[in-house]
Design goal:
With 711 residues, the chain is α/β, with parallel strands linked by helices. The protein folds into 6 domains: 90 residues; 101 residues, Beta-Lactamase; 83 residues, Signal transduction histidine kinase, dimerisation/phosphotransfer (DHp) domain (Helix Hairpins), CATH 1.10.287.130; 157 residues, 2-Layer Sandwich (Heat Shock Protein 90), CATH 3.30.565.10; 109 residues, Rossmann fold; 120 residues, Response regulator (Rossmann fold). It contains 17 helices and 22 strands. The strands form 5 sheets. It has a 5-stranded antiparallel sheet. The protein has a 5-stranded mixed sheet with strand order 7-9-10-12-11, sandwiched between helices. Strands 14-13-15-16-17 form a 5-stranded parallel sheet, sandwiched between helices. Helix 6 runs parallel beside helix 9, helix 7 runs parallel beside helix 8 and helix 8 packs antiparallel against helix 9. The longest helix is centred in the N-terminal third of the chain and has 89 residues. 24% of the residues are buried.
Length: 711
């Protein structure tokens, strides 16, 4: 029993020992795992420490380099600052820098030298204190300006966003110009420039200019006096020569008197040029603006040169822009003088060909003025390019073999040039030697009032013209004038090219050498166009005999003469029967369509009766007389087809001829037109209606004794 107990104890002890061993093994395993984890963590920490040490070493290196760079940069800044101030100190003019509070930061010796012995000026001194010092010590010559006003003015300069330069005079006669600029932080950089030498030189130049102007005025006054004294007796010479020519003289005496008059007039022209030139030089010519008719002025200049133009057989034309006003405000006498000189030169230096005066312009409605361009073109001698500037000089003429036979003072172009400049304009020239020249000038003149450019009304039945003119320049001017009047035209070079197919309302024929005998040309036109009105365009240099009943239009063409010639030619034509108004009845129920229809007929001359349905249309037709009916189809109470059928019945009852009835309808499907016309409607227009279609229909169907298209 004891033995069995001992065995049990032994077993218990053995079990306890095994349990203890297992626990020990477990703890050892845990301890081993913990040691392994601690070893790994320690290894990781060791790596981090190594990395951290490396970063620290790199940062220490960068920090050292930054410190070295900063030291080097500071040395450079100090060196640059020293160079900057050394450079500023070498500037002969004053230099100063102020902060945003107007306190002086720094200034160079020339700036501070102005205050030497007058007070302390240095860093920290306010600009207002410097101004006080200038006033109190008399450093700046205030001229006639009060001290307080000058002080406020100088302070106000620096209050502006842009500081304007100012010139000051110091007590010792030195002139300085202050040029100030604002810095980005609100401060001011001030430069004080010594301009004494420039001021003194300007004074010397001003004195020299005054002396030269005084000499010029004295010279011009002398010329003016002498020209005037010469002009008075020369008027007597020319006047007495004219009287002498009116008295009975033999051939030799007449020759002597004409020579005296011609020579006197030539001398008078020279004296007048010298007188005008002297007045311009002495600045005694005053412009006298007044309302005038520019177109009439240009035409008057043409009349002045007409005898010479006729004698030479030149083609002289005036091209005045048809859409340009005629009434302006300006010195008409001086403008005429300039234009006469240019036109006279063109005629003088042109032995064959043409002279053209062209007037165009641009109207400025906002300012109520017009910029005018006036040119004089010719086919004469022309000018070498290197002589163009020369001819505008005083007493200058082109001396060559071609020009030697032409007399003159050489003052005309110079006077014209100065007059145009005095009027605020400019003169120009373009030329090719041997091919002619073009002189022009540009001036701007105020408008008198808006011109009435559309008052001319052509005679009835004059709509289309035939123009027979071989001269391209004349043709261009004339046809543009016709376009302005509302005439359409066909142009032909000669009478032989005309055919009956043209069918004009009026014929213009240029009776030039190219067209041969005037009578023969007229007979050819009469055979082609019967009683169609004819206007013969004549040239004073080429006289022609014309049959009776032919109107004439003389060159250069004038727009009022063109209109007069058309009116005159129409009066020669057989009288057409007196026309009456076209009587038109229209039925339309839609108010908007009624308005549209009225607007489409607004420009026509007719008597319109407009009703709203078929019943009213039939009633109006019974009680009135009409030449034509327009009717809508779909209308209340009675539609257009029924109304048309009733109108045809009324016509049969009266024994009257059927009048045209035109349908205005939106029915545009196949078969609609045939169905509608069965009711007695002869013509058919689909909506939306077109103005040109309605007008064409009216023109086609109107009775011969009506003309709804007359103006």
């Amino acid at each position: 029993m004891e033995h069995s107990r001992a065995n049990e104890d032994l077993m218990l002890e053995r079990r306890a020992r095994l349990a203890a061993e297992r626990l020990l093994d477990q703890k050892q395993a845990e301890l081993t795992a913990a040691n392994r984890k601690l070893s790994a963590h320690a290894l990781n920490l060791s790596g981090q420490i190594v990395d951290q040490r490396r970063v620290v070493e790199e940062l220490e290196g960068q920090n050292t380099r930054v410190v070295k760079d900063l030291v080097a940069a500071n040395h450079k800044v100090v060196a640059v600052e020293r160079l900057l101030w050394d450079a500023i100190d070498t500037i002969h003019d004053g230099f100063a820098l102020f902060d945003a509070s107007r306190n002086l930061i720094a200034a160079n010796p020339p700036y501070l030298a102005a205050f030497e012995g007058a007070g302390d000026v240095g860093p920290g001194t306010n600009f207002s204190e410097i101004l006080d010092l200038c006033i109190d010590e008399g450093i700046v010559d205030l001229r006639d300006q009060g001290a307080d006003d000058w002080y406020e003015m100088m302070l106000a300069r620096w209050s502006n966003s842009k500081i304007e330069p100012i010139t000051l005079r110091f007590w010792n006669g030195i002139y300085v110009k202050m040029v100030d600029r604002r810095t980005s932080d609100g401060g001011v950089v001030s430069l004080v420039l010594n301009i004494t030498d420039s001021i003194l030189k300007e004074g010397e130049l001003r004195d020299a200019r005054d002396k030269a102007q005084a000499a010029d005025r004295a010279k011009s006054a002398f010329l003016a006096k002498m020209s005037h004294e010469l002009r008075t007796p020369m008027n007597g010479v020319v006047g007495m020569a004219d009287l002498l020519l009116e008295s009975p003289l033999d051939e030799e005496g007449t020759l002597y008197a004409q020579t005296i008059r011609n020579s006197g007039e030539a001398l008078l022209e020279i004296i007048n040029d010298v007188l005008d030139f002297s007045k311009i030089e002495a600045e005694k010519i005053l412009l006298k603006p007044a309302p005038f008719d520019l177109e009439r002025l240009v035409q008057d200049v043409g009349l002045i040169v007409d005898p010479t133009v006729t004698q030479k057989g030149l083609d002289f034309q005036i091209d005045y822009d048809q859409f340009l006003p005629a009434e302006f405000v300006g010195d008409a006498g001086r403008i005429r003088q300039v234009l006469t000189n240019l036109v006279g030169n063109a005629v003088k230096f042109t032995d064959e060909g043409y002279v053209l005066v062209r007037v165009v312009g641009v109207v400025n409605d906002a300012e109520q003025n017009c910029q005018l361009h006036i040119t004089v073109e010719d086919s004469g001698l022309g000018i070498d390019e290197d002589m163009i500037e020369h001819i505008f000089g005083e007493f200058n003429q082109i001396e060559d073999e071609a020009n030697r036979k032409y007399e003159g003072t050489g003052l005309g172009l110079s006077i014209s040039h100065k007059l145009v400049e005095q009027m605020g304009g400019e003169v120009w020239i373009s030329s090719v030697k041997g091919e002619g020249a073009c002189f022009g000038f540009k001036i701007t003149l105020p408008l008198v009032a808006e011109a009435d450019m559309g008052s001319a009304v052509l005679p009835a039945g004059i709509h289309r013209a035939l123009v027979i003119e071989p001269n391209a320049m004349d043709l261009d001017i004339l046809t543009r004038q016709m376009e302005f009047l509302g005439l359409t035209f066909a142009a032909l070079p000669n009478v032989d090219a005309a055919t009956k197919d043209i069918d004009p309302d009026i014929v213009f024929v240029g009776l030039q050498r190219e067209l041969g005998d005037g009578g023969g040309a007229i007979e050819t036109l009469r055979s082609l166009f019967g009683d169609t009105p004819i206007v013969a365009m004549t040239t004073p240099a080429i006289p022609v005999k014309l049959p009776s009943g032919i109107a004439t239009l003389s060159k250069p063409f004038k727009r009022e003469d063109l209109f007069s010639s058309i009116t005159e030619a129409a009066s020669f034509a057989p009288k057409a029967p007196e026309l009456r108004q076209l009587r038109l009845l229209a039925a339309e129920d839609n108010k908007t369509n009624q308005l549209v229809f009225r607007k489409m007929l607004k420009t026509l001359t007719l008597d319109l009766t407009l009703v709203e349905n078929g019943i009213e249309a039939v009633h109006a037709f019974k009680n009135g007389e009409f030449d034509m009916v327009f009717t809508d189809i779909s209308m209340p109470e009675m539609d257009g087809m029924e109304a048309s059928a009733r109108i045809r019945e009324i016509e049969e009852e009266r024994g009257a001829n059927p009048i045209p009835i035109i349908a205005m309808t939106a029915h545009a499907m196949d078969g609609d037109e045939e169905r509608i016309k069965q009711s007695g409607i002869g013509h058919y227009l689909t909506k939306p209606l077109k103005k040109d279609q309605i007008h064409a229909m009216i023109k086609e169907l109107s009775p011969e004794d009506t003309d709804p298209f007359q103006e």
